[in-house]
Write a structure and sequence with these properties.
heterodimer, A: mainly alpha, 0% strand
Amino acid sequence: MPGDPTAILLLNPRIPPETRLLLRERLGLDEPLHLQYFIFIKNFFMGEFGYSFHYGRPVTEIILSRKMFNTITLVGSSVVLAIVIALLMALIAARRRGSRSDAGLLVFSLATYSMPVFWLGMLLLLAFSVHLGLFPLGGTISATKVHESTLDYISDYLWHMTLPLIALVLIQIGYNFLIMRNTLIDISMEDYVTVAHAKGLPEKIVMRKYVLRNAMLPFVTIVALQLAGIFTGAVLTETIFSWDGLGLLLYEAVTTRDYPLLQGLFMLIASAFLVANYIADILYAILDPRVRYR
Amino acid sequence: MSGKSSRRSRVVRTSAIKETVADLKKTLEEYWVLFSGNMLGVTGLLMLGIFVIIAVAAPYLAPYGEWEMGVCKPFEPPSSIHLFGCDELGRDLFTLFLYGTRVSLIVGIVAALISTMIGGTIGIVAGYTGGKIDSLLMRITDTFLSIPAIVLMIILAALLGPSFINIIIVIAILTWPPIARIVRSQVLSVKEYPYIEAARAVGAGSLRIMSKHILPNVMPILFANMILQISNAIIAEAALSFLGLGDPHTTSWGMILHYAHVSGAIAAGYWWYVIPPGLGILFLVLSFVLIGYALDEIVNPRLRRA
């Protein structure tokens, strides 16, 4: 049923064709395509995102809800964790370049980088949920459980979040590590680092004040640019773990051809990307005194 | 008289061709020496070789036909007869795995080839022409970059309908932007070389300069990135197939994982259904990544170690 959300009605012969025409009219799909587009633009500038075909509720209400909170919690914490872990790994690898631990970390990160996230998710489910029974098979919260306190609720939530979080962190680590390691090695070869060593400064100080400080700029860039890719991972991860977030919502919106909902989600993703890049630009100026905006 | 001169020109031409071939051979040999010194790159090439053999010889290696159902009990665990066990329709998973290699390889290579051609062309034109055309092309590139590719892929694949060709097209038209960016930045420096100015002074047109002088210079970078692009395309195909947007008339690793997911094999703990296709994707992608990075280290002078 490519394209038309009402085409599903054709499957049932008892539904008269008039019903479908009526539905098309109600959804605004009977207008010519270019007209539909102008209507969309007009509504967009009036802050009107329309009603979801599938849910029948306002798009903004569906998006700005628990689903958004769930996705931000999952994706946000995965980004932070992946940066911290990759940075620690990169520090070890860069300090002992060419050593066995460097090679091991490289192979590990190349392997996780080459892994499809949904397969990683399936493996985690197989190992930890099915065979060991340590974690739930999916969802964000135990539906049947009565939560006695807020703490109880939070721990249940975190328990559900563990596996999707591990999957998302693992696929980001590879790329982060490769870039961070190369940046650290590049900067360690600069003359001012050699001078710092020659002055007899302790390794820790050289690392923190000379190397890391200058490595911040490329790090910020990758994190900002990666955002679009992370959302991709979120769609697949949320599908596998049936995590009730925007990624799963987007997949459902595609399969039901819920155009208003898709448009709303697209707007959100594009603005998130713009905001991330804007923040990155501001961070450049804070991190690097050489960067000046007029 | 005319026969003589044409023979002479033919001799000149063949010797020119011979020279070019010899040059090419020499460059390739130089690259090969550098490449074969890179252990990771050689490992990748060996791994790729195995996969290519599997893909070509799949019908001969496979114990059953691609669509043969009921050759064993549904969800039968691995045994000496059915190496990878069976799926819910009683199909031999080992057979499906072998056939799956083909789709991943073909989709990956063809999609990457198309996307490299699009990205390369846009990068060269934008970098060489500059000005308004450059800004326009780069803004288009940025637009594509700012939307998560897979999201657009899901939508396009759903709208175009599931077919082998559509999957390739969808992946190709959404993965070119990074290549365009890389090529453009390279072209910006190449076009300042004196011989480009010389070519322009002799009266060569833009089209000729771009195809004869700039393209050969960005070719190595283009090639290295194409190899890396193949790995992205393979993962993208697997993701689309996994979401049920793949061609139901072909068997791919992503498709096997899709059926595993849909048939509830995970909750039942049928690990043999899930592990082999994923390992296939992992190692195929890894082989291209290893080759790509090895090539990148050769052609990218900044990364070359003295």
